[in-house]
Amino acid sequence: MLRNGLEPWHLLIVAVVVIALFASKKLPDTARALGKSMRILKSEAKAMKDADAQEPRTDPQT
């Protein structure tokens, strides 16, 4: 009867329902913080790439 009772998509649906019921007030703040963190990470990665491109390469063996 419950041979394939809990498949991964069942767990996904349960997780979405739990998040919607218990964490709905904190979701906008969490999403905002995640977006801000991603923007910071992206800008820092770009700055590191630009800094590497501007530095002249030196040969460590000479």
From TrEMBL:
Subcellular location: Cell membrane
Top-rank taxon: Bacteria
Pfam families referenced in this protein's UniProt entry, alphabetically: TatA_B_E
Topological category with respect to the lipid bilayer: Single-pass membrane protein
Transmembrane parts of this sequence: 6-23
Keywords associated with the record: Cell membrane, Membrane, Protein transport, Translocation, Transmembrane, Transmembrane helix, Transport
HAMAP family listed in its UniProt record: TatA_E
Family of this protein: Belongs to the TatA/E family.
Function: Part of the twin-arginine translocation (Tat) system that transports large folded proteins containing a characteristic twin-arginine motif in their signal peptide across membranes. TatA could form the protein-conducting channel of the Tat system.
Assembly, per entry: The Tat system comprises two distinct complexes: a TatABC complex, containing multiple copies of TatA, TatB and TatC subunits, and a separate TatA complex, containing only TatA subunits. Substrates initially bind to the TatABC complex, which probably triggers association of the separate TatA complex to form the active translocon.
Name of the molecule in the record: Sec-independent protein translocase protein TatA
Naturally occurring in which organism (per UniProt): Streptomyces pulveraceus
Gene that this polypeptide is encoded by: tatA
